[in-house]
Amino acid sequence: MKAAQRLIVWLVMLASIVLVSDSCFGSGFALYEAGARANAMAGAMVARADDPSALFFNPAGITQLPGLQMMAGATFVMPSTDVTTYAPNGVGTTTSTLGNVWVPPHLYVTYQANDKIWLGLAVFSPFGLGTEFPSNWPGQYNSYKAVIQTVNINPNLAYKVNDKLSFALGLDINYFTLDLKRNVLTPFGGVGASLQGDSIGVGCNAALHYRPFDWLKLGLSYRSQMTQDVTGDAKFSRPAGMPGVLFRDTTANGQITLPDEFYFGAAFYPDKKLSVELGLIWTRWSTYEDLRIQYETAPGGPGSSPITTDVKNWHNVLRPFIGAEYKALDWLDLRAGFAWDQEASDVQFVDYLVPANDRFLFSFGPGFHYKNWTLDLSYTYLLIVDRNDVPAHPTGVLPSSFSNGYAHMVGCSLGYKF
User: Fold this and answer.
1) Shortest CA distance to 173 belongs to which of 157, 151, 156?
2) If you average pLDDT over residues 363-384, what whole number do you get?
3) What does the DSSP 8-state code read for residue 62?
């Protein structure tokens, strides 16, 4: 296959990935499933940064990639959580999230322009949320469906200072969509409330990659916060007999600030076959103070407030990780990793949009090489720590506990070196 034909194939794959990202996204708010090789090592690619997925973890590392290289793939995320809600008499009702499959995609292109300058283009999903319950479950007055989708287009320029040091700068263009559904209890009966909107936010990123010794690589990467001014429509399913001035369909808008993030990693190469990377990701979730929605027409009718505010007060979190890779054969790599993903929400502000707690990720997977092709596969088991004694909240949260939280995640990435 000629180079031009291969390029057309990859562009078609890019279009397909964007279409997939419009239909379903991964569970959780911050997503790190950016490549199957990285998934298999719990994200330990910040210091390695030696395949096209470096554009997500550390774009400065693409100066290690000669010529034109591409990678595309997706991670299939299958989450489940049980939520037990308690009535005033103490009787509990357990409800499980619906069995959805979410698919955050990725595509990367890197190009060596000359001995000093590399260009990169990435399409990935840095944030996403997918939580759905039956529409009549006890927590329906807080949420029964919450879906956040993001598509990030990220061009980068990397500069090789010398054989040891490189840096990169990039632009983040983030398309954000929001779909929230809940029920509202009124004296006239239940009202179904749906809020949908979208926006485009802009941010930037910067990165450093340094190899002081043959046996050590260091990586540091930063992505800025992005403000999303979401506009859309609020629609209501009104019961018969409700006065016409209440819960009328209207336009709405709100603002959310996606957090900035620091990535750090140190990769050690004790011999030619084995590498081990340690690192962490710091996410400044303190930017997520509240979810504030302003309606053009107040749902509660004339004289009521057109603004609703759900307090979040999330806090900053760390995600430490360790990942290892062993080159078993010329055509086969073996990988494994572990990460601890801290929860950002305090128990007094927990809601059903993110019924979670601290997470532990156990991952492994092989990598295959054939001529200019690479195929990476990964499996991750995500275990969510139980959360008890969740208090009632005016936003419709009942006294609750979260248990049996987990996710199966299967990743696949296909790469080619032109």
Assistant:
1) 151
2) 97
3) G
Using DSSP's 3-state secondary structure scheme, residue 136 falls into: coil
**What does the DSSP assignment read for 212-236?**
EETTEEEEEEEE--EEEEEEEEEEE
H-helix or E-strand containing 36?
helix 36-40
Tokens of 353: 């949009």
Query: Three-class SS of residue 170?
Result: strand
Q: Is 175 left (phi over 0), alpha (psi -120 to 50) or beta?
A: beta
How buried is 2 (Cβ within 10 angstroms: 0-12 exposed, 13-18 middle, 19+ buried)? Answer: exposed
Task: Judge contact between 140 and 131, C-beta under 8 A.
Answer: no
Q: What is the pLDDT of residue 27?
A: 35
Question: Could you read off the pLDDT of 73-123 as tens digits, one per residue?
Answer: 999 999 999 999 999 998 999 999 998 898 999 999 999 999 999 999 999
CA 102 – CA 27 distance, rounded (Å): 7
The number of distinct structural domains making up the chain is: 1
Answer for the pair 359, 343: CB distance below 8 angstroms, yes or no: yes
The candidate with the shortest Cα–Cα distance to 79, out of 38, 34, 42, 33, is: 33
pTM of this structure: 0.90
Termini Cα distance of the chain: 11
Q: What's the rounded Cα separation, in Å, for the pair 6 and 238?
A: 54
The residue length of the chain stands at: 418
- pLDDT band for position 349 (50/70/90)? confident
Q: What is the CATH number of the domain that holds 401?
A: 2.40.160.60
Which residues, in sequence order, are CB contacts of 53 under 8 Å at separation 6+? 34, 35, 37, 38, 45, 71, 106, 108, 413
DSSP string, 318-371: EEEEEEEEEEEETTEEEEEEEEEE---S-GGG--SSS----EEEEEEEEEEEET
What is d(CA 131, CA 208) in angstroms, rounded to the nearest whole number? 36
pLDDT of residue 2: 56
- Residues spanned by the domain of 252: 3-417
